Structures are given as C-alpha cells and as structure tokens.
Amino acid sequence: MKMCLKQSLSVVALCTALAAPLPALAQSRDTQTSYGRNPHYTYGDLRLVSLDPDGPGGSADGIRIGGSMLFQPGLFGQASLTSVDNLDQLDLGVGMRHPLSSRTDLVGILGIIWADAGPQDDTGISLTGGVRSLIGPQFELGGYVGYAEVFGDGDITLTGEGLLHVTRELALVASLGFSDDYDAITLGARWNFR
User: Fold this and answer.
1) Predicted pLDDT of residue 181
2) DSSP letters along 27-86, please?
3) Looking at residue 147, which CATH number applies to its domain?
4) Rounded Cα–Cα distance for residues 89 and 40 (Å)
5) What is the pLDDT of residues 58-79, one digit of tens each?
6) Residue 32 burial (10 A CB sphere; 0-12, 13-18, 19+)
7) Residue span of the structural domain in which 138 resides
8) pLDDT of 10 strictly over 90
9) Which of 22, 32, 52, 66 has the least C-beta neighbours within 10 A?
C-alpha cells in the first residue's frame, strides 16, 4: 500500500509537470475552444490501467476503453471494457445527474458487471455516487464512492479523478482509486462529442 501510494504520488507529480504548459497553450487559442461550461456526458476515453492488489501477487497493467452518452438532460448511459492481466470486465450502467450549480453536478450510477477471470466468471452489480466540478476553464475534478459486488465479494472504492481540457473536445484524464482489494491508477485521454 505504501509503495503504491509513493508510485501514485510520483505519477501525479510527473503528469502535473508534463501538463503544466498545456493550459497556457490552450488559452492562447480562441477562447471559444476552452471547455468552460458544465461537465460533459457524451464522450469516449481510452486509459492505461495499473492495479496494485493488497494481497499476494504483484501489480498488473492493462487497458480500459469506455464512454458515456447523455440521453436526457438528467439521464446518461455509461459503458467500459477493462482488460488487466487475466481479468476482462465489462461494465454497463445508467446514471442520473443533478446540477448543484452551473459548474458542479451530483451524479449517481447503477450498473451491471460481467467479469471473466480465467477459469471463473461472474455477473455482479455496482452502485456509484459522486460529484463532478469544473474548477476553471480547463480543469475538472471528480470524487466518487463506489460499491461493487462480483465473485461473491463486495468492495467499496474511493476514487479521485482529474481532467485537463486541452480543447473543447480533447481532455487528458488521470484517476487514483483505493479499495480493500486493490489500488488503481489510470492515465489516458478523453474525446468529448458535441
């Protein structure tokens, strides 16, 4: 756990250093290209995933592809496919958003999980609640509490997520999650569809 936390802090510091010049670059463009409104819910993203289990075994790396689509002003759907080591997992969910202000949304997502871990597979449920907030024209933060039950084990995960909106469409995204079973880091990019 301590090793994962040190690695996580190193990754966050590296990403911050690499991303530092990007806001100035984005602001130098026409101001209409900056994100600057409420959080967006129609997007696709691709992320690298690193899992550090709390039990025996080393860390595992993989990839996640996912997306979201807004159907109504307060209703959206989400899907993601994660492949890490010997685990393939498909998540499908329906979410609701409630604006707390013009830049902050309260979100809740109910989902179904299909997981295949080599010799065994299972179907489970997930429930996530959290807040998404734009803290500036280019920066968005999210905090989530999630519960998932699969393979007969219920697990609560705390996740923090940050996005740097380089243009109206393109954002860099990173997240850090903690649970009883594993810690997870993701790094990637998101494309917002208009």
Assistant:
1) 85
2) HHS-GGGS--SSPP--EEEEEEEEEEESSSS--EEEEEEEEEEEEETTEEEEEEEEEETT
3) 2.40.160
4) 25
5) 789 999 999 999 999 999 999 9
6) exposed
7) 2-192
8) no
9) 32
List the structure tokens of 65.
Answer: 């592809």
Asked if 173 and 162 touch (Cβ cutoff 8 Å), the reply is: yes
The pTM score is: 0.78
The predicted structure's pLDDT at residue 38: 78
pLDDT at 54: 78
Number of folded domains that form the chain: 1
State the sign of the Cα–Cα–Cα–Cα dihedral 143, 88, 172, 10.
positive
Q: Structure tokens of 160?
A: 């923090």
Q: How far apart are CA 36 and CA 135, in angstroms?
A: 9
pLDDT digits (tens, 9 = 90+) for 96-148: 999 999 899 999 999 999 999 888 899 999 999 999 999 988 999 999 999 99
Report how far apart, in Å, the C-alpha atoms of 186 and of each of 33, 99, 189 are.
Answer: 26, 26, 10
Q: Are 59 and 84 in contact (CB under 8 A)?
A: no
Top pLDDT among 27 and 67 is at 67
Residue 166 DSSP label: S
137: which 2 tokens? 């024209």
Q: Which DSSP helix (H) or strand (E) runs through 122?
A: strand 120-134
Note the pLDDT of residue 15. 43
d(CA 14, CA 20): 10
